Amino acid sequence: MSQPVSETKISMSDPTALGVFGLALVCLVASSQKLGWTGGEGPGTVTFLLPWTIFLGSLAQIWASTIDFKKGNYFGAVALGTYGLFWMAMAFHWGLNLLASSLTWLEPLKIGADTKQVGVAFIGYLIFSIFIMIAAAEANKCFFAILALINVLFFSLAMASFKVVPAVFSPLAAWSELAISLIGFYTCGANFLNNFFGRTVLSVGKPMGWIRKGA
Q1: Which residue, 2, 39, 73, 184, is the most exposed by fewest CB within 10 angstroms?
Q2: What is the pTM of this model?
Q3: C-alpha closest to that of 172 among 152, 158, 189
């Protein structure tokens, strides 16, 4: 017996797969550059990162966030919106640096620029991501793993920006970002299949049960 149209629309309206796919793909591309698998030397290494950062890392997550806000999915809306805006900011950061390095009349933009300012932003994101990670523990284990790795990523990026043992924290940032991507691909695939078939095809893990709603 076919499913009622109204129920089909509800089950197919979860934007999580789209948002998490955007995160997974941009992390894959960015980590490949950090690990030295792609790119070379100088500001131009981020040139071809920018489209994926803007469209997948930013717009895909922000789009999914707006749908979640309309649906009343508070966790998805805030989490996807927060990280979508992060990637938008990173795209502008890389873009400004690329322009300032490529066009001589924009070189004054780099005078007095301090990478520690970006490190402070990473610390700010780390602080809020800890709260999102706590909530993710009550969503599912895949989300919790992604958020835990995001916290490792932000801490590592901050330390590298502050030039604190960069030989350790730069590779740690790269590998944690790659791990985010791999778990993200599994999570978005599981979410897509589970919603499409209306049953659990791939498990994302039960909530941790550390903090129960309404307790």
Answers
A1: 2
A2: 0.89
A3: 152
